[in-house]
Amino acid sequence: MVERAGDRHRSAQEDAPVADAGSSRQRGAAPKFDKKTIALVYDFDGTLSPRPMQDYTFLPKIGADAAAFWAESNALAKKTQADPLITYMHLMYKKAQAKGVRIDRSDLVAQGRRVALYPGVKDWFDLVAGYVKSHAQSHGVGLRHYLISSGLTEIIEGTPIYKRFHNVFASEYWFEAYDLPYPKRVITDTGKTQYLFRINKGVEDLGESINQHMAEDARPIPFANMIYFGDGDTDVPSMAVMRKNGGHAIAVYPPGKSKAKCVELFKAGRCDFFAPADYRKGSDLFQRTCLLLDRMLADIRCQEEMWRLGRGVGVARK
Ligand SMILES: [Mg+2]
Questions:
Q1: 2-11, 43-52, 190-199, 289-298: which has the minimum mean pLDDT?
Q2: Residue, of 175 and 267, whose pLDDT is higher
Q3: How many domains would you assign to the chain?
């Protein structure tokens, strides 16, 4: 099944402005300041879920110990100088085949239901929407959530939060082309940054090239309106792209466990904040996210006023 990113499920809730446009009447084609969409972008494994998503069902189903599997996969990639992500995608199915276990696309989707999420993740989307709605001083502010993961699209589809994302960019298999499923799209650590630019430029259809030049003021979601959430070294390229372009990043660590990696990222200037991966209301993560949202909402209000002022004196601002 070929599915374009632009065709993916979109929740009307995420697309709709969370700050009510009020009772203002439509004024035909009157120009409006349109850089009012905020995008929260998440890594999955270790960020929204405590373990790699394959650990919950796929690996136990083929009788593989998760730690041993990842050690073998990483060693194999190193030894053969193969891409580590292509290596794991191949090795999983090689082992499944050797065990005589057939796992098709719908099996992977079903596995998504068994993936554990960090506390509060399921309610986070409504929580943040509520915050933006009550704090936006500008009408028509929109909020979107995106997922960029090296994990598997099929498993993510089965999770209860899939529908909360405006778009999901993740690794994926071809299931029809070969006996063994073949990687169709592999999202590497550095490859993740491509999707940040797709969100920034509004080019989410993966059939369209991302490489054409687009002037900064023509880009629908400025980096300044984006927060990236990640948990480790695999997020460094994305965090670096975010922060170098005026965006924001938050690093998370397992509640009650070591925060050493986050401290390292923070000291290296990779993230604005770090916090335990507890997404419940009142948590450090929620409060620090709200601080960045406050800054963004103020900035949107400010930019909108500048835009209005500029138009009044004949300065053409997008
Ligand atoms: Mg991760």
A1: 2-11
A2: 267
A3: 1
Q: Give percent above pLDDT 70 in the chain.
A: 89
User: From the CA of 275, how far away is ligand 1's center (Å)?
Assistant: 14
Interval between CA 78 and ligand 1 midpoint (Å): 20
Considering the domain boundaries, does residue 72 fall inside one? no
Mean pLDDT, range 230-242, rounded to an integer: 97
38 has which bridge partners?
Answer: 143
How many CA atoms does the CB half-sphere of 235 hold within 13 Å? Answer: 34
Q: Which amino acid is at 217?
A: D
CATH number at residue 42: 3.40.50.1000
A 10 A CB-CB count for 26 gives 7
Please check whether residue 100 lies inside any domain of the structure: no
- What spacing in Å lies between the alpha carbon of 271 and ligand 1's midpoint? 14
What b/e readout covers 200-238, taking b as 16+ CB neighbours within 10 angstroms? bbebbebeeeeeeeeeeeebbbbbbbbbbbbbbebbbbb
Q: What's the gap in Å between 6 CA and the centre of ligand 1?
A: 24
**Domain assignment present for 106:** no
Tell me what the mean pLDDT of segment 106-113 comes to.
Answer: 96
The CA 27 to ligand 1 mean position distance, Å, reads 45
User: What is the overall mean pLDDT for the chain?
Assistant: 91
Residue 168 amino acid letter: V
Distance (Å) from CA 306 to ligand 1 centroid: 38
Task: Report the separation in Å between the CA atom of 238 and the middle of ligand 1, taken as the mean of its atom positions.
Answer: 11
Q: Report the pLDDT value the prediction gives residue 177, as an integer from 0 to 100.
A: 63
The CA 215 to ligand 1 mean position distance, Å, reads 31
Asked if residue 267 is part of any domain, the answer here is: yes
Task: Judge whether residue 30 has pLDDT over 80.
Answer: no
Domain range holding 156? 5-19+34-51+117-312
The 8-class DSSP code of residue 309 comes to: H
User: Is residue 256 over pLDDT 90?
Assistant: yes
Distance 174 CA to ligand 1 centre (A): 24
Cα 48 to ligand 1 centre (Å): 8
